[in-house]
Amino acid sequence: MAKVVFVVTAANGWTLKDGTVHPTGYWAEELAEPHRLFRAAGWDVTVATPGAVPPTLDELSLGIAGGMPSKRKVMRQYLASIQPQLDSPIALDVVDEDDYDVVFYPGGHGPMEDLAVDETSGALLTRRLDSGRPLALLCHAPAAILAAKKSDGTNAFNGRRMTGLSNIEERLNPFAWKAKWFLEDAVKTAGVEYRKATLPLRPFVVVDGNLYSGQNPQSADALTERILADFEQ
């Protein structure tokens, strides 16, 4: 049986430049849809977080920002069905990425708070990228690459092609004007060859060797389906 580990943020807030903390966590669609698709394909799915802390759902992701009511209802029901697993994640520091066919990072603003500075996650990402085995990051999850450093101090993802939430998409959030930094700017500074769709909020996936990335929540299905299709070849 193929195996995937979801590395999920443990943060429940995002600290803004005025010192306030915006409640956040993982984005519903970015965890629920890939989890559902992997499981439907017969994969074993493991959830890991820093410190084995149960991840927090960003309630905004099941509000208007999460899409049509019927879609949000389905996602809420699916998340409820896997809640026992979400309540008991394994600790990120015990994950051996070699045990998994795919390492998958879903997003939400949470990774901007914790995974962006998590050395354990950064080391895992660096090893996985170097291994040539599939690694995927979705929406805000590429913030985690900021903690991925080579021995010379340069970013492990320098020169790689990726996407992630664009500046224009971030600015659609009413609290974005208080953000300390935007994802697109940060990954470019790290040396990533950033790509994005012509129009915001449209599915967009970039594949660079073993590195898979999706731009936004709308890319969750397309990213997962691309990974599954490539794995079957």
TrEMBL record:
Gene3D superfamilies: 3.40.50.880. Coiled coil: none annotated. CDD domains: GATase1_Hsp31_like (cd03141). GO terms for cellular component: cytoplasm. Residues 29-229 form the DJ-1/PfpI domain. GO terms for molecular function: glyoxalase III activity; peptidase activity. Keywords: Hydrolase, Lyase, Protease, Stress response. Pfam families: DJ-1_PfpI. One of its GO terms (biological process) is methylglyoxal catabolic process to D-lactate via S-lactoyl-glutathione. InterPro entries: Class_I_gatase-like, DJ-1/PfpI, Prot/Nucl_acid_deglycase. PANTHER family: GLUTATHIONE-INDEPENDENT GLYOXALASE HSP31-RELATED (PTHR48094:SF11), PROTEIN/NUCLEIC ACID DEGLYCASE DJ-1-RELATED (PTHR48094). Belongs to the peptidase C56 family. HSP31-like subfamily. This is Putative intracellular protease/amidase.
